[in-house]
Amino acid sequence: MAVSNGTASDEPSTATVDGVVTAVRDGIMQGRYAPGQRLPEADLVSLYQASRGAVRTALAQLENEGIVLRERNRGARVRPISLDEAVEITEARAVVEGLCAAKAAQRITTEEKKSLRALSDELRTAVEAGDVMAYTRANQEVHRAIRDISRHETAAHMLDRLRTQSVRYHYTVALLPGRPSVGMREHIEVIESVCSGDADLAEKTMRAHLMSVVDALQQLDANLHQW
User: Fold this and answer.
1) pTM of the predicted model over 0.85
2) How far apart are CA 165 and CA 177, in angstroms?
3) Could you report how far apart the first and last alpha carbons of the chain are, in Å?
């Protein structure tokens, strides 16, 4: 399947290499590009209004990040990630995001506390409505907000790569019976721990949440092996 699902409203009009990298990475994270989907250079040039050289350089960078596969005479495609890899990625995220949560607890401002706590309401609304897509979006926003509040650039770059690689499992895990309710409670606990200013508690709570996601991924794996 070729690239056909970007829109002018959410893509750069004249993209640099960094612009193409960001747009494709975001497209994968947001589910616009599926695992294994082809990414023809000509389509990306047209979609992002970028030069062919910029697109090629961007695809090479995404390949180095482990997000894209490039094959001789076949072009580029979104790299599929196995469930085992998703578990390992989430374990790594637990360490890095734990650090971000600790830093966020130390650095959060009053306004950032208000914005972060507003995401608790979004999570509750989504779960009460049974809207898995809205829950998944709010889930991602919580993690993104804490990353930004931490103001830890190295960790932020690492997380962009890790989250993009495992994104296709986020929605699948959210479909497990009862998982959105569990995830909502865990995210609210993370939010409150960050807002408390207790760095150790925030790190511990974030790590516990992501190890709960690991457990959910392993449950998903067990379910798949039953078929």
Assistant:
1) no
2) 24
3) 27
